[in-house]
Automatic annotation (TrEMBL):
Keyword terms, alphabetized: Ion channel, Ion transport, NAD, Potassium, Potassium transport, Transport
GO BP: monoatomic ion transmembrane transport
Protein known as: Trk system potassium uptake protein TrkA
InterPro entries listed in its UniProt record: K_uptake_TrkA (IPR006036), NAD(P)-bd_dom_sf (IPR036291), RCK_C (IPR006037), RCK_C_sf (IPR036721), RCK_N (IPR003148), Trk_Ktr_HKT_K-transport (IPR050721)
Length: 222
């Protein structure tokens, strides 16, 4: 695929290298030509100097053949404007914008522009390590209806089948991270100590799911 990135900072340059190493073609845009010094010497992608929401600049970067557009400059307004231009003017389906203001990010998410709220995400990651409870949303669909979340659970669930957990919580276990590897659960998959649980459910159900999983499983009556 061809992917266009706006912003050649640490995030943009890292993404460019990862995507190129994965076999994709990449074009990266930045208004400061000195920013391209972050790219390794062997980088084969296009370096385009300019503003990421300028149509001519986007066309030079190959936006018309792009499968995805990523806006990770240091400016919220620039990121969201360029993401909207990529989607609405050039018809790029897969767009994502980095937003520092989490309140804005939630608004744009509801408008169908996937966002990553940098400050909030970093804070959430730290809190998950300091206070490992509740759910951390990892992805929401553009309408905000469906959420994929990493969910903390009571240790009493260890040894329980994921299918039993699904029935109790009313949620689908998307996958389990086990010793750094993703495991797709089967009917007989059992939750082990150290497993990191990821569920997918309606966003409005997450509070209820957290409540169920934070408590010990109810004993079956005979």
């Amino acid at each position: 695929m061809h992917i266009v990135i706006m912003g050649c900072g640490r995030v943009g340059s890292t993404l460019a290298h990862i995507l190129e190493d994965s076999g994709h073609s990449v074009a990266i845009i930045d208004r400061d030509p000195q920013a391209f010094r972050r790219l390794r010497a062997g980088f084969r992608g296009r370096r385009v100097t300019g503003i990421g929401f300028d149509r001519d600049v986007l066309e030079e970067a190959g936006i018309e053949s792009a499968a995805a557009y990523v806006a990770v400059s240091s400016g919220d307004n620039s990121n969201i404007i360029s993401a909207r231009v990529a989607r609405e003017t050039f018809g790029v389906d897969n767009v994502v914008a980095r937003i520092y203001d989490s309140r804005r990010a939630e608004v744009y998410q509801r408008l169908g522009i996937p966002t990553v709220a940098t400050v909030r995400w970093t804070a959430d990651q730290i809190l998950r390590r300091v206070l490992p409870e509740g759910a951390e949303p990892l992805w929401r669909d553009p309408t905000g209806v469906v959420t994929l979340a990493e969910v903390a659970y009571n240790s009493a669930w260890i040894g329980t089948r994921t299918s039993t957990l699904e029935d109790a919580a009313g949620a689908r276990v998307a996958f389990v991270n086990r010793m750094g590897e993703a495991v797709l659960p089967k009917r007989d998959t059992v939750l082990q100590e150290g497993d990191i649980l990821h569920v997918i459910a309606a966003d409005t159900d997450m509070d209820r799911i957290n409540k169920v999983l934070s408590a010990a499983p109810e004993e079956e009556s005979h």
